[in-house]
Amino acid sequence: MKSLENTKVGFIGFGNMAQAMAEGMILKKAVGPGQIYACAKNWEKLRKNTEEKGMNPCKDAGEVVEKADIVIIAVKPYMIQEVIKPVKQMLKGKILVSVAAGVPFDKYEEILEPGTHHLSTIPNTPVSIGEGIIICESKHSLTEEEFSLVESLLSSIGLVQSVETKQLSVAGTVSGCGPAFASMFIEALSDAGVQHGLPRALSYKLASQMVAGTGKLQLSTQAHPGAMKDAVCSPGGTTIVGVAALERRGFRSAVIDAIDAIEKKK
Questions:
Q1: N or C: where does the chain have the smaller number of CB atoms within 10 Å of the terminal CB?
Q2: How much is the pLDDT for 1?
Q3: Does residue 25 surpass a pLDDT of 80?
Q4: Does this chain's domain 4-163 share its CATH topology with 171-265?
């Protein structure tokens, strides 16, 4: 089986998500900077974002596909067909991984040459520090060996979770849009800390570590979030007063409404 040590990774498109993935792979030493190739529309910006970190800029998608073993499509969904068209034949011998939200296996089957091995995924931004989530569509055309290689690469930068096609959208919304909601909560909690006398930097630090620690505690124990909440709420204590205030403001229903709004927009 091919190992990551001699695997070259190519990005077609090198925007925020592609850069986050590349940074995470380098940080976690899954691959070295010299094993990463990328192309993008803006050549000067691409050079700046790759060369100073030891990665390889490529003039076009053809060069990326030629150099890479795993090709990651990281462009907007509406651009996929246009980007793939010139390299369709070349992709047949490669492992293709998509990070474009809303483009599942069956859609790629319409775009790609028959027999192309591909997998659709939805990563989130914390992959840049190796603490992300990568949602993978369970329906794919990779061989067992190819999937094992891709899983090894992606698991270096986050939790790899396979879901059925019908769950792909909402799983991507929860994990992909969730960082924005969590950031808003951290900011709001920090504002409250500052209002009551904490320095801004300290308030951010405490709120962020609290969110990170609580998430890791749930993952580690598999405890029901409601039970974790109850464990902090003493009868007649301070926490339950805050919980009650959030409930009166519709905290949980607001979060559910946010997910509903996103899914209805798709």
A1: N
A2: 61
A3: yes
A4: no
The amino acid sitting at 226 is G
Pick the CATH number of 4-163 from 1.20.140.150, 3.40.50.410, 3.40.50.720, 3.40.50.1000: 3.40.50.720
DSSP-derived 3-state class of residue 234 = coil
95: left (phi over 0), alpha (psi -120 to 50) or beta: beta
Please name the CATH architecture into which domain 171-265 falls. Answer: Orthogonal Bundle (1.10)
- What whole-number distance in Å separates Cα of residue 106 and Cα of residue 8? 26
What are the structure tokens assigned to 14, written together? 């090198």
Residue labelled with tokens 């800029």: 57
Specify the pTM. Answer: 0.91
C-alpha closest to that of 63 among 101, 25, 37, 102: 37
SS3 25: helix
136 to 104, 120, 205, 217: CA distances (angstroms)? 10, 6, 32, 24
Instruction: Name every residue whose Cβ is closer than 8 Å to that of residue 227 and which is 6 or more positions away in sequence.
Output: none
* CA 102 – CA 118 distance, rounded (Å): 15
First to last CA, the chain: 39
> Measured between alpha carbons, how far is 59 from 42 in angstroms, rounded to an integer?
10
Per-residue model confidence as pLDDT tens digits over 181-230: 999 999 999 999 999 999 999 999 999 999 999 999 999 999 999 999 99
For residue range 163-176, list pLDDT tens digits in order.
999 999 999 999 99
Compute and round to an integer the Cα radius of gyration of the chain. 21
pLDDT in tens, 126-158: 999 999 999 999 999 999 999 999 999 999 999
Tokens of 202: 């300290």
CB 146 within 8 Å of CB 117? yes
